[in-house]
Amino acid sequence: MPDTMMTKIELAVIALARGDPLSSVMPSWRCTLFLSDQRQHLPLANPRLEALRRYAVLFRLQRRGLAEAERERMRNAGYDPQQISMIEALVASRCEQERAPPSTAPAHPHPESTAAARPTICRSGQADFPFPPASTATRGANPARILVTNLSHTRLSHPRPLRIVAFAMLPLIFWGVSAQAQEQDSDKDKDHIVIGIGAGYAPAYQGSDNYRALPVPVIDVSWGPFFANLQNGIGINAIDTDHITIGASVTVMQGYRSKDAPAGIGKLSFGAGGRGFMSLKGAGFVATIGATKGFAGSTKGIIADASLSYPVSVSSRLTLVPTIGTTWADKKHNDRYFGVNAEQSRASGLSQFRPGSGFNDASFMLSAQYRLTDRLSLGAAGGVTTLLGKVKDSPIVFHKTQPLGFLSLSYRFGR
Question: 3-state DSSP call for residue 94?
Fold first, then answer.
């Protein structure tokens, strides 16, 4: 069959798109949609067919106002310019037919005359496949929906692993659960609100002899360019495409309590910092680099981080994300976090220590997300981190290699 011709399933998708509202391809702003399970608006499991459905909906509603980026999306999905023109002609012709007054067609046309007048749209196999009547093109009442569902295997929400969020004492867990940076949808509908509860197990501070198990909230909000979570804090994505995300935010910087540190060292207050980051996505990998500069509390130093993840969809419900990462910090941060000054040395009996700038640690994390339902998810992450360079020789470091883990149960509002 020539590449420029449409298949039965593609024609069925175009026909069904006639009943799809704009909300099926764009984030909905209605709060009522957040509280209901809109299954009819879940994307098709086949990315190529979902790209076709999206284009048909947008062309029907926007026509000349359709952005060129949408045609580029179709070309990336495998449709050539001739096929795109054919899709536009088919959608336009059906819109004109639906707008035509009922009196323009006989009430009971002769079957043979109808067949003769009907244009051949395409040929697949032995029989032509025309558009179904508009009256049967609504969702939930069209036999073609069964055809689309069967050939696409299933209609489902593409796995979007949650950004499992923890307190600043669990920073490395974030690398293992950043799979939502690898958006697997064929569209850009990322708006969501995720809330839940979890439990974390991690050192009281890096190198500590004490571990803490604490309840941890799960918070992940993404709305247009705005986001809020405890990984990157509260901020804006200035650029957010299928392959690159660049953003800036205000986030928490880690400290520790005086009772968790050796006697005489005192506390290091938690602080706030300005963060910039960039994520690159390609060939299944997600590479992220970022830097945070403290401006209140804590060390007021600079911490830079880098990570590489590879999300793996084991099934439609289970996603695994192995991640490796490292951090670097400047002299101000390391000296205040791992150092022992003269006053602290006298109070604690420990030797004075100034590690200076350098790479602080390397880590490996493995996270998993299992979708119990379309909205309810169970998350888990575990891994190990090891201190590097001079900081591992700090008098307040008791263990240079340490495990950490996290469990969560979360609920997703929105699409």
Answer: helix
